[in-house]
Amino acid sequence: NLLISRVRSAIESKDLDLAIQLLDSIVEFKPEYVEGWNQRATVHYMKKDYTRALADLAQVLKREPRHFGALFGIGVIMQEFGDDRRALEVYRRALELDPHMKRVPDLVKTLSEKVEGRDI
Questions:
Q1: pTM here?
Q2: Percentage of the chain lying above the pLDDT 90 cut
């Protein structure tokens, strides 16, 4: 908890390198702690290091396959890569797990029309 509070402080003060160092320690010390991986994925995303963010999100899902936040994160990154089909897939999976996610129904609708087309 102490390290996570320091991570939050580092993020708030925009010291993302320090946040990564702290999160590296957390996942090394306690690799089963899913939120350590998830937070590190978020910071990698903030640094625009999408490859590392995706790797950490994969670790989250390996430990907790129903982690809808990780699925959402993958969807966001896939959209940034221009892979709308993959983004749509993971957004739909996230919605199956948590039908009350904000923004995701609108994203699914928009991407469905873009990827699959509109009904006649």
A1: 0.89
A2: 92
